[in-house]
Amino acid sequence: MNYIDWLSRKDLEYRDGGLYFANLNTLGIAEKFRTPIYIINEKTIRKRYRELKDTLNSGYKKNKIYFAVKSNTNLSILKILVSERSNFDCSSTGEIHACLSSGISPERIIYTGNMFTNNDFKFAIDNDILTNLDSYSQLIRLANLYEKNGKDKRILSFRFNPEFGAGHHPHTITAGKEIKFGILENQMIKVYSKARDLGFKKFGIHQHIGSGIINAKDYEKPIEKFITIIEKLSSQLGIQFEFVDFGGGLGIPYRPEQDPLDLNIYSEIVFTRFKEIVEKGEIGEPFLFIEPGRYISAESSIILTQINTIKDNGYKLFAGLDAGFNTLIRPTMYGSYHHIINCNEKHKKKILKYDIVGPICESGDVLGKDRELPELNEGDYLAILDAGAYGYTMSSPYNSRPRPAELLINDGNLYKIRNEETFDDLIRNQTVPDYLK
Ligand SMILES: Cc1ncc(COP(=O)(O)O)c(C=O)c1O
Question: What is this structure's pTM?
Fold first, then answer.
């Protein structure tokens, strides 16, 4: 993919040297609002959702997409996806609360937590949320709580750990014997037969092998193992599945030289063996679920940020921003690459190499290392791309810097969908004991 096409995939283009995002001039936005600021393009969210929906529909009609809420919990994003008829995958009761607050009905939510507390389970039972467990002991506790609450044990799912994982960083690989998630092969028969003995009537099954997978072939081995365990549960225990959830993990091209994930290869890997076992008629007539987060939300957003300091220490050049790892932690946490570009390239010819750094009092606060950019000046604005997944949701008020605002672009109009935090917000929940007053 050439650079212009790569930018245009993200709805970005230069017109007469000025950077336009979703048809709006980024300089105009930067001058109107305080930076740093997140800007979300509604069109991209819808486009990516529909791409995946079309892919699933073309292979297996009985399917559902569960948007992974952890990637972006903004209520307006949830509403956009509600209007696309998405379902929602939540990793905590807080995420479920956000969904319920957006008017999402409980039957459209799946709760894939880990290290669940009894309070987590009570919340799920009280709100009729389907849970996806990842240990034997959780099953025993959940069943007890259902009995205490006098509620019907309708449907349950377990997360399988296929031991083959993948992802953009070791911390995002979620399968393997050393990994905390899921249930290994040798305990799968035990948990499903116990769940049936405890009175659960219907079952689903789930796996999620990691996050940020750009090579679709990485799904091949784990899916083969997943299919084998599904067949085994059906043949040995006679389980008929209501759904088979293949998880998320679909990556996006963060780097200009990267090609997008090949959805044809992905769908062939997902559908081929799955359809074979469904057609054999031994595992029931399950729905096929996937749980993408990043694929739908990442490319929808940029962060606009202003350069406050250009520093030449005699050895290298630094461009200092008002955004740091408090605004976007992925580069510091995972060494992730986010492409960074000028909002105004007019009259800029000289290319120089910069470390793009934030204002946080840590030397790890580097958003881009050794980036070659048209000469930068203090006061210039930059755009940090692909910030819509694990961007705002992982931001923090570290160094007591309030979190930024979020804007939404719909059809050429700008809407403020989250206010920036204030200094008062940062201290609001603290109380000082009387003896210190
Ligand atoms: C269980 C589960 N499902 C889905 C996702 C979404 O992953 P991604 O945003 O890479 O699609 C995650 C991410 O960590 C996850 O843990």
Answer: 0.97
